[in-house]
Amino acid sequence: MDGKLIRRTNRKPEETECRLKAGQARELVSRLQRDGHCACWAGGVVRDLLLKRLYPDIDIATSATPEQVAGLFPQAHFVGQSFGVARVPFGGFEYEVSTFRQDGIYLDGRHPEKVTYTTDPMLDARRRDFTANALFYDPVTETIFDFVGGQEDIEKRLIRAVGDPGQRFQEDYLRLLRAIRFAAALDFQIEQRTWEALCRQAPGISRISPERIRDELLNMLVRPGAGNAFRLLKDSGLLHLLLPEVEEMEGVPQPPEFHPEGDVFEHTLLLLDHLETPRRSWPWRRYFTISGNPPQSNSATVSVSMAMTGSVQRYSNASRTVCACPIAKQSMWAP
Predict the structure, then answer these.
(1) Residues 135, 212: one domain?
(2) With contact defined as beta carbons under 8 Å apart, do 91 and 75 qualify?
(3) Long-range contacts made by residues 162-168, C-beta under 8 angstroms, separation at least 24?
(4) Containing H/E element for 95?
């Protein structure tokens, strides 16, 4: 061994990659700062850092304009140039780098009509969705910048809208689902005013494309707290609007000698509560299970049910086929 000490570690591969990616993200920020720009980590990565969670995705916000980002990193490619968002390959990883901005008015319930670039991170924070996602962190000086009370809400384990909750949801109705996903996955509560606004604005989800709704629902299913996510969907009225066939399981009886927990809906939520973090292919199987649970229906009905509801959420044929086979092997429900 040439007299060298081999250091052994129990660190998981994802932890090692996270540390490597964080190191390169620090260097990217430092490169922007050396060129005279304000730059920091932004959003969910700062929240997860405070919660001592893994943060595989690191987004960077900067005062540099898109043109200045492209000048510093010629390999950058813009995925939302009108919004000042670029993907920058750096150090073997790729990072999303966005320019500080203020948003104009929202007319379509999803996107601002125009954006105005700014050098002030406080203005950028005020246009974001929830306080826990509106924090900035300078990895060079190890300083957190909090303009909206996000640290306090994280300590209280609250999802709170930035500013007026009703306005935040009207700007982008996808935030209705994002609030529920964050609360369930992080085991947070939704702050009262934010929750009341979410319930009032629930019908606005119809203005969001089926593909984006699908992605949010699947993200709920592949994270811890999936059962709680569906409870919140039910209580807010969103489940009735998006997956009425799931809501209809409430009140469907089960044989009490086999299922003392209650009806099919409660049974399904308990199943979701007890599932550990799954592989990415699992959400389809979970959805099949949810939408195919009525008594006296065999598992073949699941694929039929999904084919019918698939037109609503535009699930691909390939995804349905992949999961129909393993699900078809399940046994029939007891009468």
Answers:
(1) no
(2) no
(3) 162/125, 162/126, 162/127, 162/128, 162/129, 162/130, 162/131, 162/134, 163/126, 165/193, 165/194, 165/196, 165/197, 165/198, 166/197, 166/200, 166/201, 168/129, 168/197
(4) strand 93-99
Amino acid type, 184:
A
- Length of the chain (residues): 335
Distance CA 135, CA 155 (A): 13
Pairwise CA distance, residues 88 & 75, whole Å:
7
Tokens read off for 303: 């694929």
Would you state the pLDDT for residue 81? 65
Which residue is listed with tokens 């190191």?
Answer: 23
Looking at the fold, whether 213 and 286 belong to one and the same domain comes out as yes
- Match 């919140």 to its residue by tokens: 232
Residues 143 and 244 in one domain: no
Q: What is the pLDDT of residues 212-263, one digit of tens each?
A: 999 999 888 888 888 999 999 999 999 999 988 888 888 787 777 777 777 7
85 assigned to some structural domain: yes
Nearest-angstrom CA–CA distance, 137 and 143: 6
Per the structure block, which two tokens stand in for 115? 């954006």
158 phi, psi to nearest 5 deg? -120, 140
The radius of gyration computed from the CA coordinates of the chain, to the nearest angstrom, equals 22
CA distance 175 to 73: 32
- Look at residue 261 and tell me if it is in a domain: yes
The domain that contains 72 carries what CATH number? 3.30.460.10
Strand residue runs (E) in the chain: 39-42, 59-62, 77-80, 85-90, 93-99, 101-103, 115-117, 136-138, 143-145, 158-159, 189-190
Rounded to whole angstroms, how far apart are CA atoms 179 and 159? Answer: 7
First and final CA of the chain: distance in angstroms?
Answer: 66
Do residues 140 and 210 both lie within one domain? no
Residues of the chain with pLDDT under 50: 1-8, 281, 284, 286, 288, 291-335
Copy the structure tokens of residue 180: 């529920």
